[in-house]
Amino acid sequence: MRRFFKLSAVAIVMILLTVVIAYPGKGQDATPPRIVPGPWGDIVDPVTPPIFESEADRITFYRRQQMRAISSHFRSLEGIIEYDAPFQAQAMQHIEALNAIAQHLQQLFPPGTAANDGETGARPLIWQEPEKFAQHIQGFQNSVIALQKTLCYTTPSDASEALTAVRHQCLACHQSYRVR
Ligand code: HEC
C-alpha cells in the first residue's frame, strides 16, 4: 500500500513537470526582457515582448495600440480645445492622425477576433450586426471630418461642440461593442 502511494506521488510530480515544461508561462509574460543597445549604453526595456498564441492575438494587440493612438490624439485635442493648452497650431495634426486611423478602422475588426468569454475587449455583437457596426465607424469618420471643417473656420475654443460630437461616437461604439 505504501509503495502504491509512493508510486502515485512520483506519477503526479512527473505529470506536473510535463505540464510546466510544455506550457512555459502560459498566460503570463515569460519572454526575457529586451536589451536595447545604443549610444546611451545597453538599456533594459521594462516592457517585455508579449506572447502571441494566435493570429487573433496579434490582431487584437495591434487594434488596441491603434485605439490608444486614437485616444491620445483625441485627448490632445481635448487639451487644446477644452482646456486651452497653448498648442492651437498642432490641432490639425491630431485631426489628420485621427482621420487616417478612422479610415482603416473597419480592417481592424476581422471575424474571429472577439474577446474570449469573461475577458475585456471586442464584443461578438460586432460580427452579429456588421451593418450597424459599419454605421458606427461611418458616424465616427463623419464626426472627425466635421471637427476638421470647424477648426478650419473657427478658433479651437469654438470647436467644443464638434469635439463633443466625436466623443459621442467613441462612447456610443464602446457602449454597444466593447467589454470593459
Ligand atoms: C466603431 C467603434 C469604435 C469607435 C468609434 C471607437 N472605439 Fe475605442 N474601442 C472599440 C472596441 C470594440 C474596443 C475594444 C478592442 C479590443 O480590445 O480588441 C475599443 C478599445 C478602446 C480602448 C482600449 C484600448 C486597449 O488598450 O485595450 C481605448 C483607450 C479606446 N477604445 C478609445 C477610443 C476613443 C478615445 C475613441 C474616440 C475618439 C474610440 N475609442 C472610438 C470600438 C470603438
Automatic annotation (TrEMBL):
The protein here is known as: Cytochrome C
A Pfam family recorded for this sequence: Cytochrom_C_2
Give the signal peptide range. Answer: none
Q: Record the organism.
A: Gloeocapsopsis dulcis AAB1 = 1H9
GO MF term list: electron transfer activity; heme binding; iron ion binding
Question: What's one GO BP annotation on this UniProt entry?
Answer: electron transport chain
SUPFAM superfamilies assigned to the protein according to its UniProt record, in alphabetical order: Cytochromes
